[in-house]
Amino acid sequence: MSLAALETRLRAAALAYPETHEDHPWGESAFKVRGKVFLFLFRNDEGISFSMKLPASREFALIWDFTAPTGYGLGKSGWITCKLDAKTEVDPDLLLGWLDESYRTVAPKKLVATLPSS
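^ MmcQ/YjbR family DNA-binding protein, sequence as received from the core. Prediction below:
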């Protein structure tokens, strides 16, 4: 899957969650639910990077070469950052599962209760 296609897929998946909107602080996209970020997304000529909060999957996520704890102290709170270039091979469903975990972690429990079980 191309990086452009992956970006489109992540963006569409993020916006499909209840009460989600896209904001643009610091030159990147921030996907928020009720004002709280669950996905940062940035793409340039070098590749695509995104950050998500993964309290349950964090240790598993960090085994991949394209992941690292998120900077600015967020890594200590369960955030991971993925950096992909055109040569990186990754299953998009894995990333969508992480996105789902991040949304469910950040969203209010009443909104999460409206989602199908994961």
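The radius of gyration is 13 Å.
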